Amino acid sequence: MHHLKLIKMNRETKLLAITSLPTVGNAGLKNILHIIGDKTIPIPTLIACGLGNMQGHQKISIPFYDTLYTSLKIGKEHDYQLIVYVGYLYHEEQIDII
To answer: pTM of the prediction?
Structure first.
């Protein structure tokens, strides 16, 4: 039994980061990827062309359910231990999906 616990502790840990991805400005997934990099599984809730306080910014929907589902499936296949971070959500339906 003790041997099984050691195996589980050696699983690779990844941060499942669920939040917005701005193309301009430093917020959301851009900061997380900059700091944590390849230890992150980024799940954008939307793509934002600029930050919310920037004149002319736009928010663009992405296939959130498909992106999250497929990423979790791959994470399970690789036996990743996931730490989940949830930031900015675009639609309230994303809460139910998560």
So the answer is: 0.82
